[in-house]
Design brief:
Helix content is 22%, strand content 28%. With 139 residues, the protein is an alpha+beta fold. Strands 1, 2, 3, 4, 5, 6, 7 and 8 form an eight-stranded mixed beta sheet that branches. The longest helix has 22 residues.
Length: 139
């Protein structure tokens, strides 16, 4: 009986050690395809320049709700590789409007083509960050 109790106590401690960090994970948000997805950081190593899915980080947006913009997310017809991000810096130019909310990669490409945003690849910032399903529509 004592052995059973000790085994059960050890199992509870092991489960707590594993579940604790997962419960403590902090979540963020990213836009993809005009939807808001929850994301969370992951300590997985992604060597510089090996990201596969484009992800833009805004440098000078005037919007507090301007999160990063991903080209792909769960449910994208092609191209999604599970959040192995190839990072780009998106910077509004003098002819752009930094109060504009960018919520899709297509919109971002249109703004780049119009000369309103400069998009520069930053391979040293590549990272892994899962994008979780059940996105929220924009309000």
């Amino acid at each position: 009986m004592k052995r059973l109790f000790l085994s059960a106590a050890a199992a509870v401690l092991a489960l707590t050690a594993i579940a604790g960090p997962v419960g403590a994970r902090s979540f963020g948000a990213a836009y993809a395809n005009d939807l808001v997805y929850r994301v969370f950081g992951n300590s997985a190593t992604v060597p510089d320049g090996t990201g596969t899915d484009p992800f833009a980080i805004f440098q000078n947006s005037a919007r507090a709700d301007q999160f990063g913009v991903a080209q792909f997310a769960p449910g994208s017809p092609t191209g999604h590789h599970g959040g192995r991000w190839a990072v780009y810096h998106a910077t509004w130019t003098a002819s752009g409007d930094p109060t504009t909310l960018v919520t899709s990669w297509d919109q971002l490409e249109d703004l780049v083509a119009a000369g309103e945003i400069d998009l520069v690849r930053m391979p040293g910032l590549d990272f892994r960050c899962p994008v979780l399903g059940n996105p929220k529509p924009l309000d």
